[in-house]
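Per-record layout

source: Ralstonia soli
name: Aldehyde dehydrogenase family protein
length: 476
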Amino acid sequence: MRTFENTVNGQSVASARTFESKNPATGETLGLVPHSTTEQVVQAVAAAKAAQPAWAARPDAERKALMMEVAQVIKANADYLAEWVTREQGKPLGGVGPDQVPGSRFELWGCEVWTQVPASLDMPAEVVFEDDTRRDVVHRKPFGVIAAIAPWNWPLLIAIWQVMPSLRAGNTVVLKPSEYTSIGTLELVRLIAKILPPGVLNTVSGPGEVGAALVENPDINKIMFTGSTATGARIAATAARNVVPTTMELGGNDAAIVLPDADPKAIAMGLFWGAFLNMGQTCAAAKRLYVPENLHDTVVAELKALAEAMPMGNGMEPGIAVGPIQNRMQYDKVVALVEQAKAGGATIVCGGQEPGGPGNFYPITLVTDIEDGASLVDQEQFGPVLPIIKYKDVESAIASANRLEVGLGASVWSSDVERAAAVASRLEAGTVWINQHGMVHPMVPFGGVKRSGWGVEFGVDGLKSVTQPQVISVKK
């Protein structure tokens, strides 16, 4: 069985301790992952710190050109890395295009694009004030060493979201992948680190204690984290003690509101994938659906037909649309929430039964006759289950959408875009989509409000978030 290694200072680094990475579709062990020691975390941060001044001093055009080379390496190795994503995370290989399910190949295409876009952006000095007496110019400077902590749901893509803007801005990075999906990320970094100077991009792998050692290191200058609100709160507490800035993309529990004038047949596919892309294991997936009484039964019927038509199985096999839940801890949470809903009198429209057999498979499940306050509605299920809540008037739907202390994304579905926009403006979320859900774009800032985190990624605003302003003020 292959034992994988970290990349530190341009070299492959093994660890005395390892742990298994398992295929969530079959339960088979895929390989052994290094459990980084505290000393190895210190070494990785030290390597990043030593490499950072020279990396920041490189001409901007050189950094951009190297990142474009990185994008080509990702493209050249996309099939190899996509297979690791499918085997380790579970999403189908899928592909890019209107007739293919966005799966692991889509994730690797996203890695390429989200590398190219930061490489193409500029942050010129900005004259913010000038008169006869003075001239004030804002320059953007790198923080230094950035700790990036990536999740298991989009393990390569979200790592790229954290890493590439940081490198583009002149920072160096120490990346910790999720312990559930480490191999693909370690392989990605192994390949692209060959293009970069030693120490610019490093990895440390292992459970939560490794992440804790990373964020506690005094030479970390900024932390980027994507994951649960609970873990984010612990990281933020550490960062506050060390006076280290953070970007936090935390839990969502996004609301989707269907307005009474919507066409159920026209919106059904968008709603379905807005909720069940990556088996619902997406921070900005629709996780609670509010439907008016006049459309409720029709919307449910349309979604049920789609759910029952989607083939579920091992994503390495052709024709598979939906895969397993990535890990057993999340699987057990999803099952518990559905069972609680059943006990509370909810109706299981489809799914809702464990299929048995190997792997973490759970059917796409639609739940009706459920209201705000139920655990399945109020807690982020992060799985292939969607509670559908009937409402009487739009004001009550808006109040329901805003009642929770999260606000990553939301969506409004209507035949009248202006009416939908008026509702969207009243929703408490970092992004509100109209007639689509979860459609992030590399040029559009993305981030949450309330307990869904702070700071943004993507585009110029995301690039600025991995820099700090320096004002040069000149007396005339």
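summary: Residues 6-250+452-475 form a domain with the Aldehyde Dehydrogenase; Chain A, domain 1 fold (CATH 3.40.605.10). The first helix runs from residue 38 to 57.
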